[in-house]
Amino acid sequence: CGAILIHAEWALTAAHCAPYFGAGSEILLGQHSRNAAGSGADECVERLEVETIVPHEDYNGGTFDNDIALIKLSAPSEYAAIDMLDQPDDDTWHSAGTPLVVAGWGTLSSGGNTPDKAQHVTVPAVPECAETGYGNQYNPATMVCAGETGLDSCQGDSGGPLFGIDSSGKRTLVGIVSWGYGCAANNYPGVYARVQAYTDWICDLTSG
């Protein structure tokens, strides 16, 4: 599982990733290569402990509704957090085909191998996700879809970011990798926790 820094002392991940981020566990920030980080050769890696993790109180492991969690770090990170969270009623990143970026260390194909280095791919927004193969499994209030045949997040990317980049280079966090049917399958885009649905929840728990 991955996570995304949203504040010097807070990161977001998927609620179904909570078992991997228990209090006292180590979280690596700025990691690019798994092998280099494991050997200590990657000087860019910052190692911090998880102070606590707070899954959304309404997370449903059966439907993946509210699949979002906050990680409180033991100390402030030296890395810059993502620039913005997607805001309620802002449709900037939700029109069909809008390019978004998803990143992580997930497998390169369904059931495939895990890469050593972090990967990213540009995927199109799919606002009419209920019209895909997911039907009513997709909840537009808590989820957002992005991807197309051959372009998707995959196993191991859970908890990582889906974000948009504007013309000035600012990054807006739109989603958190949540679930899907296989990877990059026809008519089954990736499904993400809809960040704009949780801004109040995030602000309440992080004190703004």
Written overview of the protein:
The chain has 208 residues and is mainly β. Helices cover 7% and strands 31% of the residues. The protein contains two helices and twelve strands, in the order E-E-E-H-E-E-E-E-E-E-E-E-E-H. The strands form two sheets. Strands 6, 7, 8, 9, 10, 11 and 12 form a seven-stranded mixed beta sheet that branches. A five-stranded antiparallel beta sheet has the order 1-2-5-4-3, with helices on one face. A hairpin with a 2-residue loop joins strand 1 and strand 2. It is globular and about 45 Å long. It starts with a strand and ends with a helix.
Distance between the termini: 25 Å
According to CATH, what is the topology of the largest domain? Answer: Thrombin, subunit H
Low-pLDDT stretches are: none
Number of helices: 2
Give the % helix.
under 10%
Strand content: 25-35%
CATH 4th-level superfamily of the largest domain: Trypsin-like serine proteases
Given helix and strand content, the structural type is mainly beta
Mean pLDDT: 94
Query: Radius of gyration from the CA trace?
Result: 16 Å
Could you say how many structural domains there are in total?
Answer: 2
CATH architecture of the largest domain: Beta Barrel
Q: What is the 3D shape?
A: globular
List keywords for this structure.
2 domains; hydrolase; Thrombin, subunit H; 7% helix; 2 helices; disulfide bond; 208 residues; mainly beta; single chain; five-stranded antiparallel beta sheet
